[in-house]
Amino acid sequence: MSKGFSHYWTKKQIKKQLKVVRGELAPTMVLKDVTYLNSFRRVWLKANIWIMHDRIVYIGDDMPDPSDETEVIEAEGKAAVPGYIEHHSHPFQLYNPLTLAEFAAVRGTTTMIGDNLPFFMHLPPEKGLELLDELQKSPACLLWSARYDAQTELANGDDTFSYANIRRWLDHPYVVQGGELTDWPKVLQGDAQLLHSMLETKDMRKPIEGHLPGAGEKTLTQMALLGVDGDHESMTAEDVFKRLNAGLNASLRYSSIRPDLPNLLRELHEQELSCYDSLMMTTDGSPPHFMQHGVMEHLISLAVEGGVPFIDAVHMASWNVARHFYMDDVTGVLAPGRLANINLLPSTEEPFPEDVLAKGKWVRRHGKACFPETKVDWESFGFKPLELNWELKEVDFHFSMPLGMKMENEVIMKPYQIAHDLTEEELPDDSDELFMVMLDRHGKWNVCTVIKGFADSIYGFASSFSTTGDIMLIGRSKQGMRAAFAELKRRKGGIVLLERDGSVSAAVDLPIGGMFSGLRMEDGLLAQEQNLREKLAEHGYRFGDPVYSLLFFSATHLPFVRITQKGIVDVKKKRVLFPALMR
User: Fold this and answer.
1) pLDDT grade for 2, boundaries at 50, 70 and 90
2) pTM for this entry
3) How far is the CA of 154 from the CAs of 297, 440, 456, 468, in angstroms?
4) Is residue 5 a contact partner of residue 173, using CB atoms and an 8 Å limit?
5) Taking all residues of the chain, what is their mean pLDDT, rounded to a whole number?
6) Average of pLDDT values for 156-169?
């Protein structure tokens, strides 16, 4: 049995904590006369909270003997609630896990449960797991999911997602669940390895997160039999109730492409929902422009505005989550033995904290962020700046494929028949079609097609930000695409948009493996993303979130056709329509 996150303190540490309760050692901090949320009784109580380094050791009326070793915080008039938990994070949407964790923690979201997919796909297991340990040194609590599948077609998918690799991730104590399970049809069709990994996850007492948009009663029932515990894909109140009826916890989503939370709550209340114990909330990996409005504190506010009682809204981002992940003995509730992740609110009705403790350290104090500077040497773990030490060839611009991809919205693409002469250097100005080339980041293969509906006047565009980290070139002009690739190569990764005169009108720098930024949200990342969105809109991008469009061009958990490492894929039939070509 693998060691779980519940086993967080050593015997030596626990013995010292016991001495604090007995009065033989001084606590490191006391929150005096604070009104705290007692989740077990669902009431607000006044008490003193003793903390020993990163753990709550006592809550009650007593005060410890005076000691210079104890920081006493006069907290009368303030309301203490558990640090919030974002349980379904994709911490690579231009930002990186550490910059997102800092942004979230100073707003009260002190625990993030993140997607491990980029680590899984781009690092050897030993380096990826070492990185989890390094990130946990931050005041924020960074926990992880273990993917079973890549949500795309990989050239070496069976090797990457081998049973041995999945098991190594599941064994790690900071990996607290399996999933999200995007390739659930595969297990329904009898895939033995996938089922075995799922059953082992359950044996470890770790939940499994589904990815089940549009699933009906029978599908949800089968998922429950297979061990799936929760799902975040509800789009209607009926979807929520179907999941609850199948014994699954349901997460209500408020993201850049699915801002469903207010409407879901309205529909649920119209159908007289009164129990929130099996509901959670998530921002589902939204890009910076959407996250700037807040993390779980923002969702709690929206829930309260939508008629959810304040305590229930807090629990939907704390205790409900901790119970779902079998770690409420460590976090998600204010009680002895739990991590000192504590939000001090100005009142029992306002979720945005004035002060925040994360693992017993101040990350927000007197209304100001004070997250300690925390750095990770990304290169030492394998995320070096992208070195494209290969050149484009003439074959990379041979567009012989008759099938193109038509965008219906940010993430849905349908096939269509190409009518233009693709041997020309440029596509006509009066169409919304653009050349599109996907290239292996190591220069081994390419896929050439046409994309319709992405924009209508892009000269040259290049991106190393994608599901797989491969290179995407888009443009009306083949020469423009060549120039954009050269600029991407010079920058060693990122996203670049070129004008016809060769100038860079928008760029997002992604020096960490060519996939994510080293900038904090407020220190340039938000500005870079906003400029990219504005410039793409000027060139005809008519949807709301180009970051998700780039991410999901290859995502085979979405209909109908995708561009992948294997070629153009028919998602429903699991068939390669036009294969990738070796260069």
Assistant:
1) low
2) 0.97
3) 37, 11, 30, 8
4) yes
5) 96
6) 91
Is residue 305 within 8 Å of residue 290, measured between CB atoms?
no
SS3 of 562, please?
strand
CA pair distance 43, 167, nearest whole angstrom: 41
Model pLDDT, residue 487 = 98
Calculate the alpha carbon distances from 40 to 78, 190, 469 in Å: 20, 42, 45
β partners of residue 111: 85, 141
The single residue listed with the structure tokens 């009926």 is: 238
How far is Cα 219 from Cα 226, in angstroms, rounded to an integer? Answer: 11
Rounded to an integer, the average pLDDT of 528-557 is: 96
Give the whole-angstrom CA distance, residue 376 versus residue 147: 23
Mean pLDDT of 549-553: 95
CB contact at 8 A, 107 and 352: yes
Do strands 494-498 and 504-509 pair parallel, antiparallel, or not at all (unpaired)? antiparallel
pLDDT band at 557 (very low <50, low <70, confident <90, very high): very high
- Residue in the structure block whose two tokens are 């009431």: 43
Distance CA 491, CA 474 (A): 17
Q: Do 284 and 113 form a contact (C-beta atoms < 8 A)?
A: no
Which residues in 235-255 are b (16+ Cβ under 10 Å) and which e? eebebbbbbbebebbbbbbbb
CA torsion through residues 196, 200, 201, 205, sign: positive
Instruction: Report pLDDT for 4.
Output: 74
- The tens digit of pLDDT for each residue in 25-51 reads 999 999 999 999 999 999 999 999 999
**CB neighbourhood size of 107 (10 A):** 23
The beta strand positions in 90-152, using DSSP E, are 109-114, 141-146
DSSP string, 404-447: EEEESSSS-EEEEE--S-TTSSB--TTSSEEEEEEE-TTSSEEE
Within 13 Å, how many C-alpha atoms sit on residue 173's CB side?
12
The residue to which tokens 């989550």 are assigned: 321
- How does DSSP assign 22-70, residue by residue? TTSS--SEEEEEEEEEETTTTEEEEEEEEEETTEEEEEES--PPP-TT-
What torsion do the CA atoms of 406, 439, 154, 568 make, to the nearest 10 degrees? Answer: 30
- What angle in degrees, to the nearest 10, is found between the helix axes of 261-270 and 296-305? 30
